[in-house]
Amino acid sequence: MGRVVKGTQFVDLQDAGDPVRLSKFYELHGADELVFLDITASSDGRETLVDVVKATADEVFIPLTVGGGIRSVADAEVMLRSGADKVAVNSAAIADPRLIAQIAKRFGNQCVVVAADVKRGATGQSGSSGFEIYTHGGRRPAGIDALEWVKRAESLGAGELLITSMDRDGTKDGYDVELLSRIHDVTSVPVIASGGVGTLEHFLEGALAARADALLAASVFHFGQIAIEEVKDYLASNGLCVRPPAYIDRVRG
To answer: What's the per-residue H, E or C state across 20-57?
Structure first.
């Protein structure tokens, strides 16, 4: 069975533990959703870890998004039948954008998350925005402008956008506020911010300055630097509406 890993700018990966155990821990401590991204499925040309998805879905009851190696409607169906609530597509959607529309038509827009790994352009290929899309776990520049791509993804049926800043990933320097704000300006579907969290203030910045609809973090949770309860208390104390950490326990009675 797979392992949870986390690196910096998509390299130097460190083992962070068992995915099922971590998922259960996060659910009990107030996480609203979980995201599994199999970062080497596309580059290795293999399928996403179905057994991990099934085992996790048997143990946790918060929404689960799964991505990595989903290349067809059939792949999406396997993940959804295995217990995922949503599927995230990235490299395969870049190769054939019709995949977004096909999955949305079959399962509904709410099931389709378009994940975008974005890097500030340094090659002149990033288009007018200065932000370029990368594929295959951040290994290949696509030569596609990030803002143009997310607009197209929305028009094809994406229900959510998961935006990861490769420049900020694992650095703990905070979300790329400019990137997220500009994506917010050109799209109307929910935007999930990813990449760069290191402090409680970064979460607040992601919600207010970047105007993200959801905040994703990995390193600070995986390695015990910040607790989910701390984040929720901090956001609530700054006037944001969040589900309290004990939400799951209250629902179950």
So the answer is: HHHHHHHHHCCCCCEEEECCCHHHHCCCCCHHHHHHHH
